[in-house]
Specification:
Elements lengths: L2 H11 L4 E4 L4 E4 L2 H13 L7 E9 L4 E9 L4 E9 L6 E3 L8 H12 L2 E3 L32
Parallel strand pairs: 2-5, 6-7
Antiparallel strand pairs: 1-2, 3-4, 4-5
Length: 152
């Protein structure tokens, strides 16, 4: 499916999504409350069949926190990027996609560990790399580490 048809399909599923064609991927910006339903539909639809979540990243935009999902259909040979964000920096939370792609379980734990972004309904949301008593989230732009960070 080419990007024009893929864009049509996304908008059929979620009409409020903002879809843009970037250099490499079709990018879909969606509200956090709409993300899970869109992701599930994109996986389950025979026309899109995004069966592989190959990257899930947390992002600190400064004024907001977000998640970027890179998806691929291994049989239909197309890819897409889903993005969502929240301005709630104090308690950023999104619905988990573990129930859609099991590989998300560890990706979401990594994002929680380094950004402090919570995933609603995650089966085991706890730190995966840092010690359990670690204070703060080191990949946030406002994180301060007096001992290990060198500032110019």
């Amino acid at each position: 499916m080419d990007n024009t048809l893929l864009k049509q399909k996304v908008l059929e599923i979620e009409s409020t999504a903002e879809v843009t064609e970037e250099k490499q991927y079709l990018t879909v910006n969606v509200q956090p409350t709409k993300l899970h339903a869109l992701a599930k539909a994109l996986k389950e639809s025979k026309d899109t069949h995004f069966d592989y979540l190959f990257c899930l990243s947390g992002v600190d935009y400064g004024d907001s926190m977000g998640i970027v999902y890179h998806l691929e259909s291994t049989d239909l040979k197309h890819e897409i990027v889903l993005k969502t964000k929240t301005t709630d920096r104090e308690n950023p939370a999104f619905d988990t996609v573990c129930d859609i792609w099991s590989t998300a379980e560890f990706h979401e734990r990594e994002v929680f560990d380094f950004f402090g972004i919570k995933f609603n309904n995650h089966p085991d949301l706890r730190r995966i790399f840092l010690e359990q008593n670690w204070k703060g989230f080191p990949l946030r732009k406002d994180y301060v580490d007096e001992i290990n960070i060198i500032e110019r």
